[in-house]
Amino acid sequence: MITLNDVEAAAARLQGHLLRTPCVASKTLSDITGAQVFLKFENLQFTASFKERGACNKLARLTLQERQRGVIAMSAGNHAQGLAYHAQRLGVRAVIVMPRFTPGVKVERSRGFGAEIVLRGDSLDEASAHALDLAEQQQAVFVHPYDDADVIAGQGTVALEMLQDVPDLDTLVVAVGGGGLIAGMATAAKAIQPAIEIIGVQTARFPAMVNAIKGTHYPQGSGSIAEGIAVGTPGKITRTIIARLVDDLVLVDEGDIEQAIVMLLEVEKTLVEGAGAAGLAALLKYPERFKGKRVGLVLCGGNIDPMLLAAIIERGMVRAGRLARIRVSARDVPGTLAKITAIVAQAGANIDEVHHQRAFTTLAAQNVEVELVIQTRGPQHIADVMAELSAAGLQAEQVQ
Question: How many domains is the chain partitioned into structurally?
Fold first, then answer.
């Protein structure tokens, strides 16, 4: 069993090899959630993830002979980048097996750190099986992304730093995939402050650890925007630690995670991936549970595909009423479109898209249907635009 001594030894080993990230209060998020929120910015690590900690600690513990044989790992991206970066720095050959769905940004960055990349399988489990076969064939050291004592001890250094910076935290809220981060953090935090509450967060699409700990049978999905915690098989070591030390595990939906990503970007001006937003997603979904408590959130990663981020931002704008789709029906005569766009402009909204429809509609042949996507200040502004259109004698409706 991993102890506080193991985590403290890992912290000493890691000193000077990675960033001691800030853990600071967020007044705005505190006001929004009702809790006193403190953010641990692990997305500021060189490879933009806490995974560097466990990977670096594992590499530092290898014998000279093991370093000469090289290391092999399976990863959806962050463990890959952390291991590849520190292996390159230490002169150790690294081979990373990644599932085929891994975002391109993570694949290319891992390659950029000198690792040999093998894309195999549609899940972490399939990638893991291939990585184990390769490790046996090549006599290399297999570095598990979460079910390894040295990796877990390295991840636990996050909690050490958080409690040094904010000693009176009531609760730590931590994203859970295979469980390496929360297992390490719980080991350290409970030893330092036994009364502290540890809450794990999983995406509802990948509830493997929740099922394993609680005996539930939630179905597993096929994909998630939080691919960093989209783990189908929980670790054995991590499961044992979580069952003993973690107070509860909760599930959040994809929409909750999307909302948290946009909020962190807009409020904190910080970019996180899906897994990095899971903790805030839990606070937004279960506000009463955390109300009034001093809560530490780990922004555990910031590697997100730019195209996915663009889609999430746009969907977030729709949910916030900042982007709306409206349909206007009117007589098909010269000047109708100009009249509609002028009214929208006078109401202070900006037109993003226009679709002028004559054929695919059930309206009378003399009528036209105009669909607009407009940028607004919020729901009340949308209502104001609709009122202006109605006042001008036009039939308008908001399309959900």
Answer: 3
Q: How large is the average pLDDT for residues 374-390?
A: 94
User: In this structure, are 309 and 221 located in the same domain?
Assistant: yes
Residue 147 lies in a domain: no
- C-beta of residue 145 within 8 angstroms of C-beta of residue 98: no
Q: What local confidence, expressed as pLDDT, does residue 100 receive?
A: 86
Residue 166 has pLDDT above 80, yes or no: yes
- For residue 11, give both structure tokens: 């912290």
Average pLDDT over every residue of 357-378: 78
Contacts 24+ apart (CB under 8 A), 139-143: 139/69, 140/69, 140/70, 140/71, 140/72, 140/93, 140/95, 141/62, 141/66, 141/69, 141/70, 141/71, 141/72, 142/71, 142/72, 142/73, 143/55, 143/58, 143/59, 143/71, 143/72, 143/73, 143/79, 143/83
pLDDT attached to residue 77: 77
CA gap 182, 197 in Å, rounded: 12
Specify whether 195 is located in the same domain as 312.
yes
Q: Which of 396, 398, 382, 383 shows the shortest CA–CA distance to 336?
A: 396
**Strand pairing report for 367-375 and 350-357:** antiparallel
Domain span at residue 87? 51-142
Q: What is the mean pLDDT of residues 121-149?
A: 90
Asked if 187 and 289 sit in the same domain, the reply is yes
Q: Could you tell me the CATH number of the domain that includes residue 272?
A: 3.40.50.1100
